[in-house]
Specification:
- This protein has one domain: Trna Endonuclease, Chain: A, domain 1 (3-Layer(aba) Sandwich).
- The radius of gyration is 14 Å and the shape is globular.
- The protein starts with 10 loop residues before the first helix and ends with a helix.
- α2 links the parallel β3 and β4.
- It has four helices and six strands.
- It is an alpha+beta fold.
- It has a four-stranded mixed β-sheet. A two-stranded antiparallel ribbon has the order 5-6.
């Protein structure tokens, strides 16, 4: 029997920030076996994000062996993020910590 997938404490904050920026987010955390935590669609791009808890020491947020293998075998980037800000930067939704003006204009119909 497979044990329950561990979800980092900050994952809800990361997902909320991504959705507030206009991204579509699907959690993949329950799959386990090294698969990244989040599949994110933003603008015309798809992103894989591995969420790590930035409040933990570096040794506690290291990738597992399964994650290292999966990321290497997948053939496209997997962004490891420790905060909502890092997640927004990974998908191109921010420019130096602020929401990108392109998204703001699109959200208002310009």
């Amino acid at each position: 029997m497979r044990r329950a997938a561990k979800v980092d404490a900050n994952q809800d904050q990361v997902v909320s920030a991504l959705r507030a920026a206009g991204a579509t987010v699907q959690s993949l955390a329950a799959i386990g076996k090294g698969v990244p935590d989040l599949l994110v669609s933003f603008r015309d791009g798809m992103y894989l994000l591995e969420v790590k808890d930035g409040s933990k020491p570096p040794s506690a947020r290291a990738l597992t062996e399964d994650q290292v293998r999966w990321h290497a075998a997948w053939g496209c980037p997997v962004h490891v993020v420790k905060s909502p800000e890092e997640a927004l930067r990974a998908i191109g939704a921010t420019s130096q910590g602020e929401f990108d003006p392109w998204y703001a204009a699109q959200a208002q119909g310009f």
